[in-house]
Amino acid sequence: MQSSIAELPENNATSRRSFLRATTLAGGAVVGAMPMISAARSPVTLRLQSTWPSKDIFHEYALDFAKKVNDMSGGRLKIEVLPTGAVVKPFDLIDAVSKGTLDGGHGVLAYWYGKNSALALWGSGPAFGMDANMILAWHHYGGGKALLEEIYRTLNLQVTSFLYGPMPTQPLGWFKKPITKVDDFKGLRYRTVGLSIDLFTAMGATVNATPSAEIVAAMDRGLIDAAEFNNASSDRALGFADVAKICMLQSFHQCSESFELIFNQARLNALPADLKSVISNAVQAASAEMSWKAIDRYSQDYIELQKSGVKFHKTPDEVLQTQLQLWSEITRKRSAENPLFKRVLESMEAFAMRACRWQHDTNVDYKVAFRHAMGNKKA
User: Fold this and answer.
1) In a 3-state reduction of DSSP, which class is residue 249?
2) How would you classify the pairing of strands 226-227 and 77-82?
3) d(CA 223, CA 344)
C-alpha cells in the first residue's frame, strides 16, 4: 500500500478513518507503532560510585535512591551503583564525576574539604545550633544551594549536586578507654574528616583523614588510636567493636551532616526533562526514607553493639564546651582567609537566627514524655 495519511484530502474524514481501519486490519498497527518503537529502546544507564563499602548502610542508601529512579522512570533510566574503590578512590570521586569518568557519585561534602574549606560547613561544626534537617532547609530555601553552586563553579567542577538525607548527631568516636577530659586528646592519633580536622587538631590530637573502609584496619594495626565515623549501624558493619569497646556519644564536630548525590553536568543535562525530574524527585523521596530507615536500623544496632560488650558513654560537657569555643576561633580564622567561607557562614547564621528560635519556642521536650511513659521500665 503506497498511500499515506498525509496524501488523503484534509476534508475527507471518512477516507482517513477507512485508511486507518484498513491499515490496522492489514497488520500495520498504526496506532500502536510508536509505543512499540519507544519500548524497544535501550534504557539510559548512569554509573554511580559511592564512597562507602558495599556492607555499609550508607551504600544501601545509594542503592535505595537508584531503585527509586529505576522504578519511577519505568525502566527508561537505570542507575548502576558501584561501591567505593570500584573505579576511583573515595576522595577522588568528585573529580571523576566532573571529568565524566563516572556519571555520578554518592558521598558527603566534607570529603571535598581540601578543594575549598567552605564545603565542610555543610556538615562539620555546630552549625549555630541547627540540626541536619535544618541545614537542608537552609540549603534549599535559605541560599545554601546557590552558594554551593558558586563554589563548584570557582573550582571548575562540572557537577550538579543534590543534598539529601539528614543524619543524626555523630558520636565523638571509638576509643580504647573513656574520654573524661579535653586533655585526653593530647597526642591521640585520631581519625576524622573535613573541618573536624581543624577542631581535633586544636584539641591536641594528631589527625588522619582515613577513608571509611580503611579505619578499622588502621586501628587494628595501631596506625591510629581512635576514630569517629557516623552511626551504630555503619560502625557495627565496619567492625569497630572488634578493635575498641568504648564509644563516646554526642559531639559537635559533625552533628548536622547530610549526604550528597552528584552527577556529571553534561550527562545530566542531556537527559529528557521528565527523566531529570525523576532524579530530582527520587532524591527527595530517598531523603525521607533514609531518615526513617536510620531511626529503625541505628536503634537496633545500638542494642546489638551493647550486647557484644561495647560500652557507650556520654561525652563530658567540658569536651562539648571546648569544641564550641575552638570552633568559633577556627571559623574566624577561616573567614579571614576565605571570602566564600565567610559568606557561607554568614548565610547559615542568618537562617539559624530565626529557624532555631522558632524550633526551640515551638517544639516540646520529647524527653519529658518518654520518661513519663517509660517510668521505671527497663529500656
Assistant:
1) strand
2) unpaired
3) 35
How far apart (Å, rounded) are the C-alpha atoms in residues 11 and 44?
42
243-265 pLDDT tens trace: 999 999 999 999 999 999 999 99
Q: Nearest 10 degrees: CA dihedral of 124, 126, 132, 133?
A: -140
246 - beta bridge partners?
175, 311
Here the CATH number for the domain that contains residue 215 is: 3.40.190.10
Cα–Cα distance for residue pair 46/267, rounded to 1 Å: 9
Buried b (16+ CB within 10 A) or exposed e, 20-30: eeebeeeeeee
pLDDT confidence tier of residue 199, bands split at 50, 70 and 90: very high
| Residues forming beta bridges with residue 247, ordered by sequence position | 174, 312
Range of the domain at 214: 173-253+308-355
In tens, the pLDDT along 123-173 reads: 999 999 999 999 999 999 999 999 999 999 999 999 999 999 999 999 999
Distance CA 76, CA 99 (A): 24
Cα separation, 117 vs 344, whole angstroms? 11
| C-alpha cell read off for 305 | 553493639
Do residues 320 and 179 both lie within one domain?
Answer: yes
pTM for the whole thing?
A: 0.87
